[in-house]
Every structure is written in C-alpha cells, then in structure tokens.
C-alpha cells in the first residue's frame, strides 16, 4: 500500500468536493437573485450566514465541548494520559492540545478546534478504561493527525458552507410564496417559469447534496487520519485493534448528536446506525464514517518497513 499516494489522492478529492460546494452555492444564489430580481436579499443572507459562521468558527471548540459535557484534565489530574498525548505531540511536532474527558462508558474520542494552537482532544472514560496503552496511543495519534492535517479546520469550513447552502435554500423557498418576482411579459413568461422551477428544485435539493458532500469529506479524512496516525506511532496494529474494540461496542454515546457525530473516531450512534451493515450505495452516502472493516484492512496492509 502506497500511503502517501492515498494521502495525495484524498487531498485532491477534498479540493474537488469543496469546489462543488462553491458551485452549488453560486448556482443557488444566482437562481435566487434572478427569479426575484432581489440581489440585496441574497447579500443579506450571505452576510448573515458569514457572520454567524465566523462566530461559530472561533468558538467551535467551546461549543462542541459544552454540547458534549466534557471536563478538562491536565498533568496533575491524569498524569498518565497527559504524558501519552504529550509524547505523541513531541514526535509529531505539534503543540500539546487541551485534553478533555466525557464521563460515558461508551468508547469514543474526537478532536476539535480551528488550528493546532487552539486544538482539543477528547476521550470518553469508556475508551480510557477498556483500551490498552498501544491501542490508546493509536487513537490519540489518529486524533492528533486530524489536528496536524488541519482536518479540524476543514470540518469547520465545510460546516460553514453547508450552513450557507441551507440558509439560502430556506430563504428561496420562503420567498417562493411571499417574495416578489420579476415582471412577466409575453416573451419572457415561459423562461421565467422555467427559472422558477429550477430555483425551487435547487432550493429543495441543495441541502441534501451539501450534507452528502459534508459526510463524504468526513469519511475521506478518516482514512487519511488513520494512515497518518499509524505513521506517527509506527504501529498500525494498535489503531486497528482499537477500532475493532470500539466498533464492537454497541453502546451509543449519549453526549453525541448529529452535529458532532462526524467528529468522533467511529460513529457514536452504534445502536441506531449500523453503518458497517449497509451495503447499498444510497445508504452509504449518509454514513458519517467509512466502513470500519475497510479502515482496519487498510491499516493491517500498511508496510512501514
């Protein structure tokens, strides 16, 4: 397995998906402004979503930790965990992130923040209690790879784009009933009707497409973090074994929700969403994580010699 080739491929695909996001937003905005001849409304919608996204961007770690009911730990309160993370960050050349713990017996972990200097890594008490040191190092290295690869920033950017698409789509549908439209004449009436139908179709389908793109980026970044984490520890079996144990744990994580599910190392809703049992293409589109069997297989095929 040529790990670096896979990393480059994933980066190219991510650029493509983000470009598709931008095209989707531009298409929706153009249809909105054309049908209603109201560019000022589009400006207000984009400005509002941008301001709200900036607020969320600079406070994403605090918001996520509050939603997850996580508590901070440091060298004094959990010396063993702190040293484990600190040693890996030294190897990776990263600043030591803040470390948090979620009081939950389910096994999971995630990283958040806008960049390595403002990063957070969070573990559940369940994963700390039930993984051995090598497995826990694999999980920590995976999350540190998300930080080092700027996946945490990418995830925030994608969330911003999804929010903008959803907001514009909602505005378009509302104004289809309440807003003004361009005046119709005998020559432009049919074109106006066609544009109206296209606009409504974009408004209905855009949030769905945006969500699919968001989940696709999340899935591809998990493969990249797996590979980078294995390179960091030089022991792919540690992470592979950890993923086996985490995926076998069918207890859902109570602190997780749909907004934060993609952050975790494995789907936190094991009981309700059995992603590894999904075989259909359509079902796979809405999974927040790639099939765990494929992740384990790739890890065990890695050749670090």
Describe the structure in brief.
This protein is α+β, with helices and mostly antiparallel strands and 305 residues long. Helices cover 66% and strands 7% of the residues. Strand 3 and strand 4 form a beta hairpin.
Explained architecture:
The protein is an alpha+beta fold. It has one domain (about 1-305). It contains eleven helices and four strands; from the N terminus they run H-H-H-E-H-E-E-E-H-H-H-H-H-H-H. It has a four-stranded mixed beta sheet, with helices on both faces. A hairpin with a 5-residue loop joins strand 3 (about 110-115) and strand 4. It is elongated, with a radius of gyration of 22 Å. The model is unreliable at about 270-280 (pLDDT under 50).
What keyword list fits this structure?
305 residues; 4 strands; four-stranded mixed β-sheet; alpha+beta; 11 helices; elongated
List the helices and strands and how they pair.
Layout: H1 3-36, H2 39-58, H3 60-68, E1 70-73, H4 79-92, E2 98-102, E3 109-113, E4 119-124, H5 125-130, H6 133-148, H7 151-178, H8 189-233, H9 236-248, H10 281-285, H11 292-301
Parallel strand pairs: 2-4
Antiparallel strand pairs: 1-2, 3-4
Helix pairs in contact: 1-2, 1-7, 1-8, 2-7, 4-6, 6-8, 6-9, 7-8, 8-9, 9-11
């Amino acid at each position: 397995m040529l790990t670096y080739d896979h990393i480059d491929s994933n980066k190219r695909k991510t650029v493509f998906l983000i470009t598709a996001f931008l095209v989707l937003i531009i298409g929706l905005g153009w249809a909105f402004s054309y049908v209603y001849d109201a560019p000022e409304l589009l400006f207000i919608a984009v400005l509002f979503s941008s301001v709200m996204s900036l607020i969320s961007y600079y406070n994403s770690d605090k918001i996520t930790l509050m939603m997850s009911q996580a508590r901070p730990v440091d060298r004094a309160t959990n010396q063993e965990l702190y040293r484990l993370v600190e040693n890996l960050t030294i190897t990776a050349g990263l600043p030591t992130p803040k470390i948090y713990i979620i009081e939950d017996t389910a096994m999971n972990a995630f990283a958040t923040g806008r960049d390595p200097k403002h990063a957070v890594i969070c573990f559940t008490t369940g994963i700390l209690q039930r993984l051995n040191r090598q497995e826990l190092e694999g999980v920590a290295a995976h999350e540190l790879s998300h930080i080092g690869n700027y996946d945490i920033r990418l995830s925030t950017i994608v969330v911003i784009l999804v929010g903008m698409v959803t907001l514009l789509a909602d505005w378009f549908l509302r104004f289809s009933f309440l807003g003004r439209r361009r005046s119709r004449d005998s020559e432009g009436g049919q074109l106006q009707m066609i544009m109206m139908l296209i606009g409504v179709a974009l408004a209905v389908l855009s949030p769905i497409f945006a969500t699919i793109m968001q989940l696709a980026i999340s899935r591809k970044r998990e493969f990249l973090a797996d590979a980078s984490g294995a390179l960091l520890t030089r022991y792919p079996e540690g992470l592979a074994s950890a993923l086996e144990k985490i995926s076998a744990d069918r207890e859902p994580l109570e602190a997780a929700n749909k907004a934060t599910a993609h952050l975790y190392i494995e789907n936190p809703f094991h009981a309700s969403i059995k992603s590894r049992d999904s075989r259909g293409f359509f079902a796979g589109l809405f999974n927040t994580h790639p099939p765990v069997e494929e992740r384990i297989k790739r890890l065990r095929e890695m050749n670090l010699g």
